[in-house]
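Reopening this one. Same input as before:
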Amino acid sequence: MIAMLCVIAVFSGFNLDNRCNIWIFGKIFNNVPIFLTVLLSFAAGIIVSLPAIFLRKEKKLTVEQARALAERLEQEQKKQLEKQLSRQKKLQEAKEKAQRVFNKEAALPKKEAEPKKEEDSKTSKQEKK
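Same output, byte for byte:
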């Protein structure tokens, strides 16, 4: 508190020569020190905000409302978990299907390209005759 008063005193001491005119509700006040204008504006802001702080209504939940809210949150969490599980199952099924297809292709005998060339050469010889 003492430090705050010292800062205000220093601030006002440096700004004693700075003055301005203030218009309040149709009345003009001439040569009002700037530090006084700032302090009064700050105090007015505090005074205006106090009713909003102290007179606000706090929302209190009843036991039933709290239970209902907890149940709703639990249901939403369950739905999210079910969605994640279904996505994981679909992904696993897709992986298994891809693995089966890969295994089938690996089990098939590989066709060699050379016999085809021989057959192609035989057919071309027969065509030449």
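So the earlier flakiness isn't reproducible anymore. For the record, The chain has a mean pLDDT of 81.
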